[in-house]
Amino acid sequence: MGRHLFRVIWRLSIALLAVICCYRLIQDSARAGASRLFSFTAIIQSKLAAADLAVSLAPSDPEAHYTRALALVNSDRLTDAVVELRQATTLRPHHYYEWLDLGVTLDRLGDQTAAIAALKESVRLAPFFAQPRWQLGNVFFRLGRHEEAFAELRLGAKSNPNLFAGMLDLAWVAADGDVTTLEALVQPQSTADHLRLASFLARQGKGPDAARHVREAGEAREEGERLLLHQTITQLLAAQQFSDAYAAWALTHRSAGGDGAKGQVLNGSFTEPIIQDDPGFGWQLQPVPTVSVSIDPVGPGVGARSLHLSFGGDSAGGSQPIHQLVLIQPNSRYSLSFVARAENLVSGGPPVILVLDPRGDATKILGQSEPLAPGTSGWTSYKVDFSTDENISAVRVSLRRLACNQSPCPIFGKLWLSRFSLVKI
Q: Does the reported pTM lie above 0.90?
C-alpha cells in the first residue's frame, strides 16, 4: 500500500513539474514572440518605444537589443546605441552585421580605434562580404593610412564590383591626380577592372593612359565590358582626344590599320559590314525616319560594294544618315574622292558630301561636294578639297542635304555611294 501511494505521489509530482515547465516555456515563448513583434514594429515604424518594450520583454534576446540600437541610431543617440550593440554582440558574437554596425557607429562617435577593432571582427566573421571590408577601408582612408585602406577597399570591390567606381574616386584623391600612384592603389586585375579604370581616366582627360588600359584589358567578351569600352571611346571623343580615342578603338577592330590610318577613310568601298552601336571611327549610321540604308553587293567595279540609301519623304535638314570620323594631319591639305549613282532622286534640297570640323557642334564646313547628280543613272566621280589648321586633327565625312527654300522639303529616290578615299595634297 505504501509503495503504491509513493508511486502515485511520484507520478503526480512529475506531471506537476511538467505542467510548470510547459507553462514557463509557453510564457517564455509568448514573451519572445511579443518581443519580436515589438522589434518588428520598431523597425517598420521607427519607434523607439516599441524597441524599449521588446528589450524589457526579452532582455536576453540579441535581436531585441540590435533593433533598439538601430532605433537609437535613427534618433541620433549614438552613445546609447553603442551600449545596445555591444550587448547584442555579447549575446550573439558570431553575427558579422552587428559588429559591422557597432564599428560604423563607433566611427561616427570619433572612436576610430574601437571602430577598427569592431570592423576587423566583422571582416573575420565574413571575409568574403564587401561591406565590412569597405567600411574598414574607409576608416583607414580617413586616417590617412592609404596602404591599409586600399588593401581592404580592393577586396571589397572584388566582392561587389559596383564599389569599384567609388574606390577609383578615393584613389584619385589619395594619388593627388598622379596616374602611377592611382594604379598602385587600385591594382586592376581583370578585364573589367582595366576597362573601368580606362573609362575613369578618360573622364579625367588622361587619354594616353586610358588607351593603355584598354590595351591591357584585352578582348572585351561580356556585354558589360563592351559597354565600358564604348564609354571610354565616347568620353575621349567628347574631350576631342581623337588620337587616343582611335588607339583605344583600333585595338578591337583588326581592319583599322593601326597608326597608319591617319588620313584614310575606313571601309571606303563598303566591303565590310557597318557595325551598329559601335562608337568610333568606322561608318556611323544615324537613324532617319524616311531614309533606309543598306549595303549593296553591286559596286562601281570588281571587288567593290556600295552603300544604298532609299529616300521616302521629308527629313531634317541637319540629319546625317551616314558619317565617319577620320584622323588627319593638322596644317595640311587633303582631297576626298568618291563615286555616286542616283536613280529617280528628286528634291529641292539634294544630298551632298561634307567635310566637317568635328569639334564643338560640328557645323563648321571645311569642304563640300557638288550636289549628288539626280539626273544621272551611271557612276559619277566627285572630289572635295579642304585644308586643316594647327588645331584640327580629325574631320568628319558626312552625307547631308542642302537647305531647301520650302518646308517641309521631302526627298524621294535612291542613291548609291562607294570608293571613298582621302589623299594628302
A: no
